[in-house]
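Saturday, quiet lab. Running sequence design on the structure tokens for the scaffold JK sent over.
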């Protein structure tokens, strides 16, 4: 079957790698010698998180790792910006510093809600890091602490981000263009 869409490259592999090293340096400064748990928000952030973790190694930051999955309620049902955690973390977060890692900040609901949940779990410091930010799409007031790239309001895929659960394997970030 013919595909009725194509991928237009937006951010190259080299640009991603470079920027991740800069982010890792900033994050290392933020946490200094403090212990930190990296909490990756699945599934989209898994490749970014793996590369960020290995870049942090260069700055002598050796975080613990945990994962969670979240799903937002359908738009009409959302009045409070509620996001449901469908797979929780396993490391106790009480008294810990956390760096939440997501692929992209869109409406802002996911990070805002999960940050609040982490604090309810007793985390001391919660910082957030995203590979990409689409500030023009914001529905709640939210600014991630560490942002890789600010991008326009376009649907992007690759480097962990999916289009109908596929194309996470593409090593760069691309915009989906419908023919
Ligand atoms: P929000 O900030 O709560 O609206 O949601 C962010 C989530 O929406 C991200 O973690 C992605 O899973 C998904 N998302 C938003 N924009 C895109 C995109 O352009 N491509 C793929 N996933 C996206
Ligand atoms: Mg996601």
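Result came back. Writing it out in full:
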């Amino acid at each position: 079957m013919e595909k009725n869409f194509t991928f237009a490259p937006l951010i190259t592999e080299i640009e991603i790698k470079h920027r991740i090293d800069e982010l890792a340096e900033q994050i290392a400064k933020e946490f200094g010698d403090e212990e930190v748990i990296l909490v990756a928000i699945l599934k989209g952030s898994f490749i970014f998180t793996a590369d960020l973790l290995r870049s942090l190694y260069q700055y002598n930051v050796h975080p613990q790792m945990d994962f969670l999955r979240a799903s937002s309620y359908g738009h009409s049902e959302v009045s409070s910006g509620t996001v449901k955690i469908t797979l929780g973390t396993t490391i106790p977060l009480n008294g810990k510093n956390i760096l939440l890692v997501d692929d992209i900040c869109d409406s802002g609901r996911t990070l805002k809600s999960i940050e609040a949940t982490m604090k309810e779990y007793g985390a001391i410091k919660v910082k957030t890091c995203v590979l990409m930010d689409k500030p023009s799409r914001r529905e709640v007031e939210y600014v991630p602490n560490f942002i890789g790239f600010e991008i326009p309001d376009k649907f992007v895929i690759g480097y962990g981000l999916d289009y109908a659960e596929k194309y996470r394997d593409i090593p760069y970030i691309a915009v989906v263009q419908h023919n």
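Notes for JK: Residues 12-153 form a domain with the Rossmann fold fold (CATH 3.40.50.2020). The beta strands are 5-11, 37-42, 64-72, 83-87, 97-105, 125-133, 146-150, 156-157, 173-178. Ask whether to fix the surface positions before the next round.
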